[in-house]
Each structure stands twice: as C-alpha cells, then as structure tokens.
Specification:
Largest sheet: none
Distance between the termini: 24 Å
Shape: flat
Radius of gyration: 15 Å
Strand content: under 5%
Order of helices and strands: HHHH
Oligomer: single chain
C-alpha cells in the first residue's frame, strides 16, 4: 500500500508543478487552486506512504527521481521546453542512484 500512496504523491506533485508552470507565475489566477491542492495532496500522500512503513530515504528518493523525470518529459510535451541528450543522461543517472539507495535500503544484494 505504501507504494500506491507514493505513486499518488508523485502524480499529485507533478500535476501541481505543471499547473504552476501553466499559471505563468500566478498571473493566471485559475491555476492557483490546482497548484495548492496538488501540492497539499502530494504531501498528505507522502505522509501516508511513510506511515505505511516505507523508509523515508526510499520514498523521497523515488519521489524526487520520478518527479524530475515526469516533470521534464511533460514540460517538453506540454510547454515545448528543452529535453536534450545531456538532460536525459542526467535523469537516467538520478534514477540509477535512487535504485541503488532502494537496493541498499531493502537489503537486496
């Protein structure tokens, strides 16, 4: 169950970040509520994930890695922001680093 809560936290945070970008620095007022609700939901879901027993290092690392990857890809698709090979390599390295933390946390050798 902790992984489902974490998935919800990641999805909420990425959605809130996309809404924040769409708000153009809060100049577009209609996006303020989705930003606030998304970030609040993300932190609540992260709290549920931790309460369900997920180690904080694994939860936060996974959230950060998948959040970065998802945000960069969606920003490219929605807002036509850059996505270079160097950026993709950086995302891969982040994901590999988080995978190493997870393997260490769960004692898989």
């Amino acid at each position: 169950m902790s992984w489902l809560f974490l998935a919800g936290a990641i999805a909420s945070e990425v959605a809130a970040t996309m809404a924040l970008r769409a708000s153009e620095g809060f100049r577009r007022k209609a996006w303020i509520a989705p930003v606030a609700i998304g970030y609040l939901t993300a932190f609540v879901m992260l709290g549920f994930s931790l309460a369900a027993g997920m180690p904080v290092g694994v939860a936060y690392g996974t959230w950060a890695a998948l959040g970065i990857a998802s945000t960069v890809i969606l920003a490219r698709l929605i807002f036509r922001e850059p996505l270079t090979r160097r950026m993709m390599l950086g995302i891969l390295l982040i994901i590999l680093g988080v995978a190493a933390v997870e393997i260490g946390a769960y004692g898989v050798h």
